[in-house]
Amino acid sequence: METSWLKTLKKKMLEEWDEYLQAADDASALEELADLLEVIHALAKTHGASLQTVETLRKEKCEERGGFDRRVFLHCRKDDI
């Protein structure tokens, strides 16, 4: 069952994401990304991990599946076929 704190953080994540989507310029976008990162820090801690753990998982997934550096998105994976 979700705790009240986790529900609050999820709501805050959506709020910050919406503010990021509404950002009118790079400076505003970066401010909102900083806010999102702060929420991600708190969420990682809530799930019993550090941001370093999340970053390690991100790197592993990037190596396995690729990242967004080339601006290419896969619409389905071989496993999905």
Write up this protein.
This protein is an all-alpha fold and 81 residues long. 68% of the residues lie in helices and 0% in strands. It has helices at residues 4-22, 26-46, 51-65. Helix 1 (4-22) runs antiparallel to helix 2 (26-46). The chain is globular. The chain starts with a helix and ends in a 16-residue tail after the last helix. The mean pLDDT is 90.
Keywords summarizing the entry:
single chain, 81 residues, mainly alpha, 68% helix, 0% strand
Number of strands: 0
Structural class: mainly alpha
What's the story with the biggest beta sheet?
none
Tell me the distance between the termini: 33 Å
Provide the fold topology:
Layout: H1 4-22, H2 26-46, H3 51-65
Helix pairs in contact: 1-2
Give the structure's gist in a few sentences.
With 81 residues, the protein is mainly α. It contains three helices and no strands. The protein starts with a helix and ends in a 16-residue tail after the last helix.
